[in-house]
């Protein structure tokens, strides 16, 4: 007698053997999130015994969910701007991801649910039917940190098929508490690059996203340190040592990828701590980067985490701008806690007649802004 | 006045601006999981208002947690065998990951928390201080499926540094509901390969993990289909078409990687549906693979999901074994729902005097077994 595979699977379920591979048949009893056509988002969770449920995230105050008779709680957000949002539920004081949502992102030690409200730049955050680049996790030797370290490398679509073509390189650095996965996951870097390149807005380029924590070789769980709880503090140990290791990264990339290894074809940008890294590295290596992006950047901070004086940095800045980078781009949100720091830094640049471009956005120290800045900065490179 | 960066961050917290980048300072108030020295695992969750909390997973019945005065619930498992375990909490009927555990894995549509109990093979599932291979997400053209599709490719440590060396290739296929991420995440394939190769137990090899769902180009969230809820059913559409596309994958890999492109240097293995794919592909391409691994395999299933008769497969099997693969390895757990199917298949092989090796394990249709099988099978390849 011929058996039917699907029927056999059904038999497995009815036999109660679902624990064998429970995920095949285990689904949340509600659909959540639902992005509505008016750009509101409806969140739902089945929690029949809960007495209070709230949704945290969406860059706003917690939203209270309302219980229906069948035990499902739900809430619809206000109309949201196009963006990728992270959120979590609070069920009677317990924080949880949305059990009906398979899409999550880790931000340091916390797992959040994700949803995209389409439109505007957010359409660049979702994969489209365009040629896709390759995303690799690569280990490279870093003699100056005496370690083998991990980075994320994006090579654009066509890289494998055009073995004689050489490409410019964009070094893209994460913030405190982050790691070599942050820009590609929360930052959607490879998806944004695929979409910008496919539409002709950005040049095909290699994007290198290293780990900017000098005391860590790789993102949590990827080293023999085990499955520890990642914390922002891990960024602070050996503060200021990462910048010295950028030469190791460039050396590896220029040796192992088909790069155009000169200043005109190198960019560096970063957010927050990574903005500080970009600021300091580009200043200390004045012949290396023709494009510098400081996103909500911790500018002016020396290796030991203390602010540098105007006197200390005037001379290296003059050296850097003697043969000025083609683009020195500073961006920050009006509500960013580093706003004043950047304002003072711009005053210094102005007083020195150093040319730069400045973009001031709404909001604060957020991935919403950093993705926006990436979308604005990347099309300016290598043209 | 010089500012201290750390002090400025502290200011940010006290100013209540933590929502700006809340993850930096947002931690669960308990430590969980804790792997104890006696191989028990203590799980904890702060849930002061809950009336019942259970832990699901660990391949056993749910464990009830006990509340302490401060609102923290906890439980310690029995002594566990070394393994990677997935689990979740049930808090008053709401399923949640462990909020204190940053390590999760997606199994089809569900997110689970992960913990490793060390020892035995499980020591191969955790990264060690050994040379690491590169893991890439690669898009390749598949003319026979009229699509560009995504796969995970592992190249061993040293691949970049030895540009004249060529490598054998192991094609490793996932099960129903899975995708090109399953073997590397739940299956820990690249970590296992790093560790086996570093200890000299396995040959350096390329491992190719394609997406075995012929109707899907890539894992959920990586195509223009958006952030839908992945379901096992997605594997069933176009059932039987994937096998025809393996030639596209091999063609791409042989063109873009430094392979040794012959039968003696190709292996194919898979679990469940992917075991069926390996069974059928190796039979239909008799000159292609010298190593075949059938892990809890859906053997004997034809393209349309119906069992094939002895008459239908005798002739192609005879053709395959005329120039027999060096290793034809069948493994299954005693409690697997596909046990009988495999038993019947072995009877057929016996009756035809076809040589194979057989490994029977405890347990059922589980990642515990599939990781074990990978650890047993891989050292046998290319020697």
Describe what this molecule looks like in 3D:
- 2 copies of one chain form a homodimer.
- Chain A is of the alpha/beta class and 383 residues long.
- Helix content of chain A is 23%, strand content 26%.
- Chain A is built from 8 helices and 18 strands.
- Chain A has helices at 5-14, 182-185, 189-198, 242-256, 273-284, 310-322, 339-351, 367-377, and strands at residues 34-35, 41-46, 53-57, 60-64, 66-67, 72-76, 83-91, 94-96, 104-107, 110-117, 134-142, 147-155, 169-173, 206-210, 266-271, 291-295, 327-333, 357-361.
- In chain A, a hairpin with a 4-residue loop joins β5 and β6 (72-76).
- Residues 13-22 of chain A have low confidence and may be disordered.
- The interface between A and B is large, with 101 and 102 residues.
